[in-house]
Amino acid sequence: MTALFALATSLLWGLADFGGGLLTRRTPALTVVVVSQAMAAAVLGVIVVATGAWSEAGAQLWFAVAAGVVGPVALLCFYKALALGPMGVVSPLGTVGVAVPVGVGLFLGERPGVVQVAGIAVAVFGVVLAGGPQLRGAPVQRQAILLTLVAAFGFGTVFALIAEASTTVTGLFLALFVQRLVNVAGGGLALYASVRRGGTALPDGTLTRRSLPAFAFVGLADVAANGTYVVAAHHGPVTVAAVLASLYPVVTALAARGFLRERLRAIQAAGAGLALVGTVLLAAG
Q: What does the alpha-carbon distance between residue 209 and residue 203 come to, in Å, rounded to a whole number?
C-alpha cells in the first residue's frame, strides 16, 4: 500500500512539474502557481462542502497552514535557482529535500530494514543522476546553490507537514483545501508585489479557453499528489514513502522525452534505472 501510493505521488508530481514547466515558458511562474492552485482550491472547496469535512477542523490544520506557507516559498526559490543555473546542477540538487521527512521518520523511531536502507540509498542516488548532473562547464553561483538548498528543505518540510495535517479522508480534503487557500493568498500577494514593481501577471493570450485545462491539470495533479503521499505515509514507514515519492524528477524527465522528444543523456537513463532498482528494493523490504 505504501509503495503503491508513494509511486502514484511521484507520477502525479512529475506530471504536474512537467505541465507547470511548459506553462512557465510563456507565463510568469507566480501566475502559474496562483491560477493553478486557485482552480484546485475551488474544486476542493466543493468537495469539502459536499462531504461535510468542516467537522474535522482542529489544531492539526495548523500543519496544513504551515505547508501552505512553506510550499510557495520553496517553489519560487527553486524557479529562481533554475534561472541562475546551470539546471544540470540545480535540478538534481533539489531532491536532497527528501532528507527532511526521512529524518523525521527516524526521529520518531522508524528503523527501516537492511534491504530498505539499500533501496533508499540506490533510489536517492538514481534520482540525482536522473536529473542529469552537470559534471563540467560553467561555475555555479553561490546564490543558486543557496536558493536550491532552501527550496529542497522547503519541499521536504511540506512532505513532513502535510503528513501530520490529517488522519481521516475527510480531514485530508479539508487540510488540502486549507493548504491551497494559503498557497493562493501568499502567491497572490507576491504576484501583486511583482506587478507593482513593473512585472507582468498575464501576458497576452495566457488565459484562454484552451489553456485553462492545463492550469487545472497542474493544480489538481499537485493536490492529488499531496493526498496520495499522506495515504502512503499513514500506511507505512515515512522513510519509505518519502523516498519513493521523491522519484518525481524521473517522471518529469521521461515525460519530456515522450512529449517533447528531449533526448535523455546516458547518465539520466542510468539514474532512472537505478531509481527503479531502489524502488524494487524498498517494496521488497
A: 15
Q: What is the pLDDT of residues 41-75, one digit of tens each?
A: 999 999 999 999 988 888 899 999 999 999 888 87
Residue 153 C-alpha from the chain's centroid? 12
CA torsion through residues 116, 122, 126, 127, sign: positive
Distances (CA, A) of 64 to 103, 108, 173, 175, 223: 20, 20, 11, 5, 12
- CA 270/CA 173 separation, integer angstroms: 38
CA proximity to 18, closest of 200, 221, 187, 205:
221
Q: Which of 245, 268, 266, 243 is nearest to 255 (CA)?
A: 268
89 contacts 141 by C-beta, under 8 angstroms:
no
The Cα 205–Cα 210 span in angstroms is 10
Is residue 248 within 8 A of residue 131, CB to CB? The reply is no
Residue 155: all three cell numbers together: 519541499
pTM value? 0.79
